Amino acid sequence: MQQGRTVAIDAALALFAAQLSLRHKLPMADSLIYATARQAQADLWTMDADFQGLPGVHYVPKTLL
């Protein structure tokens, strides 16, 4: 399994993130994470409740750990 990779934030990704931020009422930092995952067609695993219920997101509440 690949641990991760660096992705450049270009104008198209920033605009997509801004659109997602408005649509889902996400903080901009969260929307950049979400936009990057969506653009890469990757599942996003998180313990951040801001992402709960979004398509392609696997949310695990902190209380379950």
Put the structure in a nutshell.
This protein is mostly helical. The protein is built from 2 helices and 2 strands, in the order ααββ.
Task: Describe the protein in words.
The protein is globular. The longest helix has 14 residues, at 11-24. It has one domain (11-64). It is built from two helices and two strands, in the order ααββ. The chain has helices spanning 11-24, 28-39, and strands at 44-46, 57-59. The two termini are 23 Å apart. It has 65 residues and is mainly alpha-helical. It has a two-stranded parallel ribbon with strand order 1-2. Helix 1 (11-24) crosses helix 2. The mean pLDDT is 92. Helix content is 40%, strand content 9%.
Helix count, per DSSP?
A: 2
Radius of gyration: 12 Å
**Helix content, binned percent:** 40-55%
How many strands, which pairing sense, and closed or not: the largest β-sheet? 2 strands, parallel
Encode the helix/strand succession as letters.
HHEE
Outline the low-pLDDT stretches.
none
Total number of strands: 2
Tell me, rounded to a whole number, the average pLDDT.
92
What is the global morphology?
Answer: globular
For the termini, the CA-CA separation is: 23 Å
Write down the domain tally.
1
Main-sheet strand order equals 1-2
Strand content: 5-15%
Q: Please identify the structural class as seen in this structure.
A: mainly alpha
